[in-house]
Amino acid sequence: MKIIVGIPAFNEEKNIGSIVAKLSQKYAKIIVCDDGSSDMTSTIASSMGAHVVKHEKNMGYGSAIKTIFNEAKNSDCDILVTFDADGQHQISEIDSLIKPISENNADIVIGSRFLGKTKDLPRYRKIGIKTITGLTNVVTGSKITDSQSGFRAYGKKALDEITPTESGMGISTEILIKASKKQLRITEVPIIISYTDNSHSQEPIRHGTSVVMSTLKHVAIERPLLYYGVTGLCFLILGLIFGAWTMQIYSEERVVMTNIALIGIGGVILGTILLITATILYSIVSVVRENR
User: Fold this and answer.
1) Cα–Cα distance between 235 and 227 in angstroms, integer?
2) 187 - beta bridge partners?
3) Are 89 and 193 in contact (CB under 8 A)?
4) CA 112 to CA 145: how far, in whole Å?
5) Closest CA to 137 of 170, 182, 173
6) What is the C-alpha to C-alpha distance for residues 68 and 243, in angstroms, rounded to an integer?
7) Which stretches does DSSP call E strand in 14-126?
8) Which residues cross the membrane (predicted)?
9) Sheet of strand 51-55, all strands in order from the earlier edge strand to the far edge
10) Band of the pLDDT at 193, cuts 50, 70, 90?
11) Interatomic CA distance for residues 178 and 180, integer angstroms
12) pLDDT, tens only, 81-129
């Protein structure tokens, strides 16, 4: 069974050498995607025997994962393991990560921080991860505990059927949404992560915003009736309520409350537009799916 370990890296010269050296003792091919680093990340990784693909400029975590996916597909591997370059993940846990795939019990395996005994997980990160994971579960209908974990294993079927497009941190959620749509088997195993002060390279607010926007975009594409239809219905109801309120005031006082009337008219117009949009997009998406 051909196993490839893919490492997205950005300015990780302090950690990349030791990580590649340890991984190389057990795994034949290590792919490092240097996402536009300004330090010695590429040079060190290459000298330690890794296959390095370098982006000319920093393009984002998602772009690095996309590059690793493409390299793994071209290498015709059986399992791809994505492994962070910051030293958080335990190499010894890779075996438990790939086991469900090697036993044909899963197509994607996620290393969950919330099933294991993760040390020093900052409170704000815990809240943010759980919130994003909850949103992901609503969209996919799954019961994942850690949708943002970068420590994952992908089987051949997942590599063949999923083509990531996101460039930012939203790629983790995008992959799960597409996997759910393809009815791929997703499971989780517990992992242990030790956090340090510099263990994450992207601000939590920026990270969270990127993931939420990515999720909403895919909801709009995959479920237009839910995204546009429910929103349109809410605006329409709001508009009708304010319209009725305007009529009531006029019938009692013979006065038109302009501000209330404008809210009512705006709500009805916006709600109607969104409902029409939802219907049109749903029809288009249905036709596209049928043609596939």
Assistant:
1) 13
2) 109
3) yes
4) 7
5) 173
6) 55
7) 29-35, 51-55, 79-82, 108-112
8) 225-248, 260-285
9) 51-55, 29-35, 3-9, 79-82, 152-155, 108-112, 186-190
10) confident
11) 5
12) 999 998 888 899 999 999 999 999 999 999 998 886 666 677 777 888 8
Quote the Cα angle for 107-110-116, to 5°.
140
Helix H, strand E, coil C: the string for 5-44 is: EEEEECCCCCCHHHHHHHHHCCCCEEEEEEECCCCCHHHH
Q: How far apart are CA 45 and CA 34, in angstroms?
A: 9
Beta strand spans in the chain (E): 3-9, 29-35, 51-55, 79-82, 108-112, 152-155, 186-190
One-letter amino acid for residue 137 of the chain: N
Residue 1 and residue 94 in contact, taking contact as beta carbons nearer than 8 Å:
no
What pTM does this model have?
Answer: 0.77
Only one residue has tokens 């546009």, namely: 228
The whole-number average pLDDT for the span 66-88 is 92
C-alpha distance across the termini of the chain, in Å: 32
- The DSSP bridge partners found for residue 109 are 153, 187
Pairwise CA distance, residues 159 & 156, whole Å: 5
Q: Which two tokens stand for residue 121?
A: 């997980």
Q: Is 283 exposed, middle or buried (0-12, 13-18, 19+ CB in 10 A)?
A: exposed
